[in-house]
Structures
1.
Amino acid sequence: MHAEVAVIGNGPVGQTTALLLARWGIRVLLLDRRPSRDAIGSKAICQQRDVLDIWAAVGAGARIAEEGLTWTTARTFYRDRELFSRELTDPGCSPFPPFVNLSQSRTERILDERIAAEPRIEVRWDHLVTDIAQHPEGITLRCTTSRGQTEIATAYAVACAGAQGAQLRRLLGIGFEGESFDDRFLICDIRTDLPDWSRERRFYFDPEWNPGRQVLIHPCPDSTFRIDWQVPGDYDLDAEESTGELDARIRRIIGDRPYGIVWKSVYRFHSRIADRLRAGRVLLAGDCAHLVAPFGARGLNSGVADAENAAWKLAFVLRGWAPEALLDSYHAERHAAARENIDITTHTMDFLVPRTPELQRRRRETLDAVAADPTLADAVDSGRLCEPHRYVESPLTTANPEAPIAPGTLVPDVPITLDGSPTRLRAIARDGFLVVTTNPGAVAPDSPFPLRVVNAAGTTLPVGAVFLIRPDAHVAAVLPSVDDLPAALRRATARQ
């Protein structure tokens, strides 16, 4: 098979990129430096509803949602008392929960099954990319394998090599500015019986068993709990384990009940972003393009959104449906999304890990105030859950300040009837461009790419407006008439 796109990195972002490209009919070569899959560890555990929608488009969303766990109560503690708790409600009409907790390793195995069933994807492990040569017709990747050197020619590449992408960025001449935090975090996945905690997320500020720092506990499937401790920068896991202090650390939380450690690791938070997400014929996605603190689950979720953004644009360019200039909008849109995530997580880290006396004083005063008056709970920042970025400033978006739904946002997931069968809008919004209108006589303009008109009469969408939905389910334009569609379509595909 001669691949049109090489995807470098066989983690969940690379897997998603490959599956979405194959869905558009693109032949993909999926490369990874490792000899095989690392099927251990929770790693990224929280998958958002909009990401489940993306995975549903490649046949994996329902399975991941079914196997995952959604906690319903968020409890926050300060020292020896509970500050407040919140019950999570879901007023939406989506069949998917707002999020699920499922280990990254299990998510990867589910995506592997989809890849194995896709003839347009070839997987090659044991391929370390050591050089990238670009020329007008495509790119040549030089790879080192256990059997020697090999070269691979493709039209484009997507670098999804995760936090190990430093070599690829160097090859492409891409900077990766930002900062790393001094404190470390210890993760232990433990399997134990804690039925009262099975649907609760618990966040502890300054508990007596981790003074001056934080602890976060997430429930996961199969009676497994992920515990994150903030620890000093010189923390030594091996030493703590050998002295029995790790067992004591865990028992301060769970008591004398039996438990087993499924996985453990120590990591440091980073806040970094690539200065370019497009380097000629190579796009950067996921942790290869940006690293953020995990509070709010913005790592994997934003990486999957990168994958979808890159896939439909590469497909449109390769099919001749759009000019190569469309790829410039990948940087414009996803760099802005990464910058937003970094701004939000930096604010969170200033509260969770205050690095100056002033920030420490402000956090202490905030927590003391909430302890006295729980109605002030919104001042406590333990991580705002990730939401889809709004492409309001994108060059592909037709601005309309009067629109009932802001152009650039993810389309609302409203019920809709199509060909006499009930469905929902996001379920049909990823097969091409979609025109949604309450005008029963609306006809789509001629188009070289997939374009469909659906009647939104009877839905909760505003009457009268014409919605142009992109292949990633974001609103490209909200128009007064179908006569305005040609110009909006040209803008949305970088043809003007």
2.
Amino acid sequence: MPCYRCGARQTDPARGASPWKRGVRADRQVLVCPGCQAVHDWTAELDRCADCGSTVLVCRLGEVECRDCGHVREADSPAGDVTGPGAPGLSEEVAEALERVLKKGRVP
């Protein structure tokens, strides 16, 4: 899953916990890269818990759960990508990668 602001793809950390943060935006789980965390007030763009106002939410199986107070509600939005402007979606990246691999394997 890419950073929802800039489209950067997450990589495995060298050691320890990942510096990427996650949240919920428009009822969809999103990731925020370390660069966007430093530059933007990214928490202002996240959904908040209706009970306690926290942005520490997770979205799974059509529900949004607050990790601070435990409040659970049904997700309202239809499934879809929540990425920044111009960020390629996963399906486009997979199609491009397959095209590159299949072109290399062709015999004239």
